[in-house]
């Protein structure tokens, strides 16, 4: 029987010694990015629905859009996603793909009309909707020849710079489980220093000083393979009203769910080991599971400026997340002329105290022109200040450093969405474009996003079937290891090209 022991780590208690777990830019962006998932009509027009409404996915842009429904409406969407990852690390290019199905959207809106034509509130609507905000499933890989830094440098540095005592890395018990848990009193640095020493990455000299057991003057072939699964999703309860003939208002209350798993393996093969006992290869495996919930709300208004021209404005509050992490680690090493690998597997799941993340608010202005029954054009412009991302409690020394880094590195970024639809009897043809500015000022850890979409819909009277295709591309920079501040390894640049096919069935009742 494989029994795992659990190590309970209190970040606050460890803050004077070491941060409990590494927080990286990818952690921040995981809760800020959106795939613009939803109905096929919404996706076919690149999400430009802020002044249009009349679509369940439009409610996340502007909740006033529910009051534009004339009939009770339900919709269910499925999507097929294909991700192509093109990575470049130190001049070497690699490719990795991922494909899979996803539940894009599911919801309904109910319309209650007033019998009094002179009433201020002509109708009100109640809606419920679920959408997958971000599909986090992906497989990525990069490989290159590094002559600057060794993977072993990470373990050596956390031991020396973190001032991890010798008795911690040696351990006082006769098993890895208890020694690894004991090392947790020095946080993640203590645990990784223990793994580095026990796997032979560094050793002790006669004076009990840490000494590198590898040739750091040699180049090394390094790679990282990452497989992730999970999602961020949003459950929304909507209330909307039509006021008079031209004004629509609405609000959403949202519960966000996070479920994310990442398995990552960093490998290194040293080209020229120094002697028979020195390190030749190193494999560092990390498992992360993050889960939790968040809360947010939306407010919006849409006005019919003329019979054909609409304008909208919407506010999306910050999302207040409460999250927990679980981690596991193993290290495998091999040495010159030694057929036996060293495998250090504490078989311990680290359970961390919950922490909070607050993402920034978003403001969206929208315009739309409707050409009678022939078609429409719509434009949305949003702005979001990513420098307002915060890890809490803000008075914690570790989180304070991260928040200061976010404030100095990130910026307010804009997003533009343009969509159009042309109708030929029962058939609707759609297209759209989406641009999202990088949230980073200079070092573009996440680049600009460019996306285009197209779609078609068939109206059967009381129901409609919609199909869309979306392509998006964005560059990401990733390190050999997930580090709060990466000053050790060069970054790999990965361009993710994502292609999605979305199918939605709508019914009016």
Plain-language structure description:
By secondary structure, the protein is mainly beta. It is 13% helix and 55% strand. The protein has helices at residues 11-14, 25-30, 40-44, 151-161, 166-170, 176-183, 187-198, 397-409, and strands at residues 5-9, 73-89, 92-113, 121-135, 138-146, 202-204, 210-212, 220-243, 247-270, 279-304, 309-316, 320-335, 338-344, 348-352, 355-358, 362-371, 375-385, 390-392, 412-424, 427-436, 449-459, 463-478, 492-508. The strands form two sheets. A 14-stranded antiparallel beta barrel has the order 2-3-4-8-9-10-11-16-17-19-20-21-22-23. Helix 6 runs antiparallel to helix 7 (187-198). The longest helix is centred in the last third of the chain and has 13 residues, at 397-409. The protein is elongated.
Descriptors for this entry?
single chain, 509 residues, mainly beta, 14-stranded antiparallel beta barrel, two-stranded antiparallel sheet, 13% helix, elongated
List segments where confidence is low: pLDDT < 50 over at least 5 consecutive residues: 9-20
Oligomer: single chain
Radius of gyration: 26 Å
Q: Helix count, per DSSP?
A: 8
The coarse silhouette is: elongated
Largest sheet: 14 strands, antiparallel, barrel
Strand content: over 45%
Terminal Cα span: 55 Å
Mean pLDDT: 92
Percent helix, as a range, is 10-25%
Q: Quick one: how many beta strands?
A: 23
- The main sheet orders its strands as 2-3-4-8-9-10-11-16-17-19-20-21-22-23
Instruction: Kindly name the structural category.
Output: mainly beta
């Amino acid at each position: 029987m494989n029994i795992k022991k659990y190590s309970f780590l209190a970040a606050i208690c460890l803050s004077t010694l070491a941060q409990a777990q590494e927080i990286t830019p990818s952690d921040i962006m995981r809760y800020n990015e959106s795939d613009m998932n939803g109905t096929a009509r919404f996706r076919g027009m690149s999400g430009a629905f802020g002044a249009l409404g009349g679509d369940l996915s439009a409610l996340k842009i502007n909740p006033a859009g529910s009051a534009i429904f004339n009939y009770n409406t339900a919709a269910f969407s499925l999507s097929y996603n294909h991700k192509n990852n093109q990575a470049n690390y130190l001049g070497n290019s690699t490719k990795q793909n991922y494909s899979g199905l996803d539940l894009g959207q599911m919801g309904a809106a109910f319309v209650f009309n007033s019998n009094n034509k002179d009433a201020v509130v002509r109708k009100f609507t109640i809606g419920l909707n679920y959408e997958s905000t971000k599909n986090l499933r992906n497989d990525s890989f990069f490989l290159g020849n590094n002559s600057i830094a060794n993977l072993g440098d990470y373990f050596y540095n956390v031991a020396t710079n973190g001032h991890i005592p010798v008795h911690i890395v040696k351990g006082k018990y006769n098993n890895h489980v208890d020694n690894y848990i004991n090392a947790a009193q020095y946080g993640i640095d203590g645990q990784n220093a223990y793994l580095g020493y026990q796997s032979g990455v560094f050793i002790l000299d006669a004076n009990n000083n840490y000494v590198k057991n590898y040739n750091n003057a040699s180049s090394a072939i390094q790679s990282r393979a990452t497989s992730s699964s999970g999602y961020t999703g949003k459950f929304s309860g909507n209330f909307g009203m039509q006021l008079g003939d031209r004004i629509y208002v609405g609000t959403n209350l949202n519960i966000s769910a996070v479920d994310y798993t990442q398995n990552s393996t960093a490998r290194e093969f040293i080209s020229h080991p120094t002697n028979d006992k020195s390190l030749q290869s190193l494999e560092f495996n990390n498992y992360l599971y993050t889960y939790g919930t968040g809360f947010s709300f939306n407010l919006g208004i849409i006005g019919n400026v003329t019979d054909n021209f609409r304008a909208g404005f919407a506010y999306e509050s910050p999302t207040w997340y409460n999250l927990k992490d679980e981690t596991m680690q193993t290290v495998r090493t091999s040495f010159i002329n030694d057929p036996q690998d060293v495998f250090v597997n504490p078989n311990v799941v680290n359970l961390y105290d919950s922490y909070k993340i607050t993402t920034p608010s978003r403001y969206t202005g929208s315009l739309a022109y409707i050409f009678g029954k022939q078609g429409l054009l719509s434009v949305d412009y949003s702005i979001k200040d990513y420098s307002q991302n915060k890890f809490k409690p803000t008075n914690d020394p570790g989180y304070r450093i991260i928040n200061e880094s976010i404030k100095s590195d990130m910026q307010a970024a804009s997003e533009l969405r343009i969509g159009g639809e042309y109708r030929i009897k029962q058939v609707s043809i759609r297209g759209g474009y989406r641009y999202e500015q990088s949230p980073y000022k200079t070092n573009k850890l996440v680049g600009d996003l460019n996306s285009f979409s197209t779609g078609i819909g068939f109206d059967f009277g009381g129901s409609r079937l919609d199909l869309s295709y979306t392509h998006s591309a964005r560059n990401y920079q990733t390190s050999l290891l997930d580090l709060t501040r990466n000053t050790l390894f060069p970054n790999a640049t990965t361009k993710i090209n994502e292609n999605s096919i979305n199918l939605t069935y709508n019914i009016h009742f």
